[in-house]
Design brief:
The protein is of the alpha/beta class and 500 residues long. The chain is 35% helix and 15% strand. The protein is globular, with a radius of gyration of 24 Å. Bound molecules: 2-acetamido-2-deoxy-beta-D-glucopyranose (6 copies). One 2-acetamido-2-deoxy-beta-D-glucopyranose is lined by residues 488-489, 492.
Length: 500
């Protein structure tokens, strides 16, 4: 039932296009429009062809290429400098706009078996496809078009690891689909432990056989360690977040070649909860609903099954575990600590850990900033909604103030460290601002799976993102910064060779 409208709509769009095509030969504004579109498309083709030819990324050649482009005044809006060229240094790729682009999306969810049902919005009955058609256009330069083959080639024999909460997982699945689109033999991509995507013990490792590389996800919603409280603590304390220690899984990914962190979402419910819980509540209500060691006997801290039940729990049942989770520093449980200070401390811990434990000449570290939620007329629990949003906010965005609070804390910590040489090597994906404009991109009612119909209007998911969709853009930025670093390495080593 829920799927019929989308099919009808697609049919309608199809016939609409046909009618439009025949009408074009009438003398009308259509001709003019068609003419401009055609010229634009042809220009694009020339430009893309050229890019394909020059795609070897010989950076000694890059400069010539961009000089050539700059000479070609007819390239119009393409006159912006390419982000990967040397001249673009200083271009802030996070300042820009969402622009409509018919070349998107980069893949179809039905072609990608790595997606949770919860992200397959169109397959789950979402009637519009607009949310898949927006490309991020930086103001002062152009991003490289995502080239899955190139990325896989650069990842050969390497490990790329996402660590964070379920929004990080959202991004990880997006990247799997983006990369898999370039692999013809789908069974050459597999989970190394044979786990299906919907079920795992805290982590999943997908291998791209032809490239001997893995793209991995570790669930660590706080990045810091959650575990048993100290022996002598009050019986109220059932579990603690150890703000000065990294998550248990850090041993597994410390040596990865690319690390992509995110956190924030789980530090976020305080204000909403405070609204309906008594204000003397001092506990951090963002911990797991049960102490994880009670659920697993294995070596892994999280025995979390990821399925639609967990999904709903993750989003909707948070109050059931408002009991007994406190913050801890050293051996001391901080009964009074506020969420904001705890969040700040956790980011300090992550940065300290990067400095101490990560070999920066091997590992490229990314940190993706907080991705805003878009509940309107309530919050995640009180019937807040986003299901009527079909377009981005093209001007300023209306996101809850805690978005900027979350972001501000991170920015504060980073700017305090920005002059230390190691942290200069941290690549921050500043997605908060751009993402705040994408109220149209959430799973809303369409997260229950293709056979389960749509969700109750009072139970919307305005936190996670439909795929294909907004997280694809975060990954395009990841791709751009990844290649940029490579480029500057290549330049440096060729410079030093030249000097030698
Ligand atoms: C430019 O790249 C091509 C291969 O794409 C290479 O043969 C040529 O030598 C390069 N030119 C310069 C000046 O490095
Ligand atoms: C595959 O990659 C790993 C590093 O992730 C490396 O240790 C191993 O030697 C590689 N295997 C082959 C056959 O290249
Ligand atoms: C860091 O990584 C580089 C490149 O892989 C390697 O040459 C170097 O020995 C590593 N340093 C340490 C301390 O492990
Ligand atoms: C970092 O260094 C720059 C100059 O190198 C200086 O202007 C700035 O104030 C420093 N920032 C901090 C936070 O120390
Ligand atoms: C977000 O981006 C817009 C447009 O670039 C800018 O005007 C605004 O100041 C930014 N907001 C924040 C909080 O950085
Ligand atoms: C490349 O060299 C420049 C200066 O010559 C330096 O500032 C930059 O950090 C180097 N980049 C890398 C990735 O080593």
């Amino acid at each position: 039932m829920s799927r019929t409208p989308s099919e009808q709509e697609l049919d309608a769009m199809d016939s609409f296009k046909k009618i439009k095509f025949f009408r074009l030969f009438e003398p009308s504004l259509g001709i003019l429009g068609f003419f401009f579109v055609t010229v634009f498309v042809i220009c694009c083709f020339f430009y893309m062809d050229y890019r394909d030819v020059a795609n070897g990324f010989q950076f000694s050649n890059q400069t010539e290429k961009f000089v050539w482009l700059n000479f070609d005044g007819s390239a119009g809006e393409d006159r912006k400098v390419e982000f990967l060229s040397e001249q673009s240094n200083g271009c802030d790729v996070f300042e820009g706009d969402w622009v409509w682009d018919e070349n998107y999306p980069l893949y179809q969810s039905k072609d990608c078996r790595f997606l949770d049902d919860g992200f397959r919005c169109s397959e789950n009955g979402r009637p519009d496809l607009f949310y898949t058609k927006w490309r991020w256009q930086p103001k002062h330069c152009n991003l490289p078009r995502f080239d899955a083959k190139m990325m896989l080639e650069k990842l050969r024999n390497k490990r790329l690891v996402f660590v964070g909460d379920s929004i990080g997982r959202n991004q990880w699945e997006s990247l799997l689909c983006m990369l898999a689109s370039a692999v013809p033999r789908k069974d050459s991509i597999y989970e190394v432990n044979g786990s299906p995507i919907t079920k795992h013990k805290g982590f999943l490792v997908f291998k791209f056989m032809d490239y001997n590389c893995t793209v991995e996800y570790y669930r660590a919603p706080f990045l810091v360690l959650q575990s048993r409280p100290p022996a002598n603590s009050s019986p109220k304390v059932r579990t603690t977040l150890k703000l000065d220690q990294m998550d248990w899984s850090s041993l597994k990914w410390r040596d990865a070649d690319v690390l992509v962190f995110n956190t924030g979402h789980w530090w976020n419910y305080e204000k909403t909860i405070r609204g309906f819980r008594s204000s003397d509540m001092k506990i951090a209500l963002t911990c797991e609903n049960e102490p994880s060691w009670k659920r697993t006997s294995g070596v892994f801290g999280y025995g979390n099954l990821w399925n639609i039940e967990t999904w709903k729990k993750d989003i909707f049942r948070i109050p059931t575990f408002i009991r007994g989770c406190y913050f801890q520093e050293g051996s001391e449980v901080k009964m009074e600590m506020k969420i904001d200070s705890a969040y700040r401390k956790s980011i300090e811990t992550v940065i300290g850990w990067i400095r101490r434990e990560v070999n920066i000449s091997k590992t490229q570290v990314f940190y993706r900033t907080y991705a805003p939620v878009h509940f309107r007329g309530g919050n995640w629990r009180t019937g807040g909604s986003c299901h009527l949003e079909t377009l981005p906010e093209l001007g300023s965005s209306l996101v809850p103030s805690h978005t900027w609070a979350r972001y501000g804390i991170f920015a504060d910590v980073i700017s305090a460290h920005i002059n230390t040489s190691d942290i200069k090597k941290l690549d921050v994906l500043y997605v908060t601002n751009m993402t705040s404009r994408r109220k149209d991109g959430h799973s809303s009612l369409y997260y229950l799976g293709p056979n389960a119909g749509i969700a109750s209007i009072h139970r919307q998911d305005c936190s996670h993102w439909c795929l294909p969709g907004v997280p694809d853009t975060w990954n395009e930025l990841l791709y751009a910064l990844f290649l940029k670093r490579e480029a500057s390495h290549t330049r440096n080593s060729s410079t030093s060779r030249a000097q030698a």
